[in-house]
Automatic annotation (TrEMBL):
Involved in the assembly process of the P-ring formation. It may associate with FlgF on the rod constituting a structure essential for the P-ring assembly or may act as a modulator protein for the P-ring assembly. GO terms for biological process: bacterial-type flagellum assembly. It holds the Pfam family ChapFlgA_N. GO terms for cellular component: periplasmic space. The keyword Signal applies. It comes from the Bacteria. It comes from Tibeticola sediminis. InterPro entries: Flagellar_FlgA (IPR039246), FlgA_N (IPR041231), SAF (IPR013974), SAF_FlgA (IPR017585). This is Flagella basal body P-ring formation protein FlgA. Residues 104-166 form the SAF domain.
């Protein structure tokens, strides 16, 4: 990291400034902090850690407001580099390494839970966690999981993700169901019989009790079979 500043430090040392004419490094650090937090523009608890500039770096005092921009990739969490430039005279540029730690709410198992278990509020805890440590599709709120079913076992404290869960079983094979056909401004409801077990959001087959026709539909939140009608 120090290497980022060596060339500039050499140039500045070659032309010593008068007493009090050095650039305040606190102002540089504040500019980097302000830029990084504004660029993030997101929720969660954000910690911005600067790995520079070195305390012994001497920069000529800038007579204009400092300019900042991200250099290369600027991830929402993790390492990034901020360029700080003096557009006035004497002009100079330095690069400050930055680490961003973003803590967000994560939904975890309150205890070890088995596959096939229907989740209740007491099975879950919302805890703060560093964003980079969470798996993709991590859940953050209990309402995203309560009433849903675990596809496989999880350990206590394990973050829960959307792919870990499936809907609760709403329909059993042979059960009487409502077949709801919607689309193109039309909504038709008929009685039918489920030909398969089905969870909410799962596609299953059902037979229309009046016509005998077998249709494929998606199990709805109330156990109805939703059939899409095309134009």
């Amino acid at each position: 990291m120090v290497g980022l500043f060596l060339g500039l430090a050499f140039l500045c040392a070659a032309a010593p400034a008068a007493a009090g004419a050095w650039q305040s490094l606190d102002v540089v650090r504040q500019a980097v902090q302000t830029h990084t937090r504004a660029a993030l523009g997101q929720g969660g608890e954000v910690e911005v850690i600067l790995d520079g500039p070195p305390p012994d770096l001497h920069l000529p005092a800038c007579d204009e407001p400092l300019r900042t921009r991200d250099l290369g990739l600027a991830p929402a969490s993790g390492p990034r580099t901020v360029e700080v430039a003096c557009p006035g005279r004497p002009s100079w540029i330095i690069y400050v390494p930055v680490r961003v730690r973003t803590r967000v709410a994560a939904l975890v198992a309150a205890r070890a839970l088995g596959a096939g278990q229907v989740l209740r509020a007491e099975d879950l805890r919302a805890v703060p966690a560093e964003q980079t440590a969470l798996p993709p599709s991590a859940l953050s709120k209990p309402e995203e999981a309560v009433g849903r079913v675990l596809r496989y076992a999880v350990s206590a404290g394990q973050p829960l993700t959307a792919p870990m869960l499936t809907g609760a079983q709403m329909v059993r094979s042979g059960q009487a169901v409502a077949i709801v056909a919607e689309g193109a401004g039309v909504r038709l409801v008929a009685t039918g019989v489920a030909m398969e077990n089905g969870r909410e959001g799962q596609s299953i087959l059902a037979r229309n009790s009046q016509s005998g026709r077998v249709v494929s539909g998606v199990v709805g939140a109330q156990g109805e079979i939703l059939v899409s009608v095309s134009r």
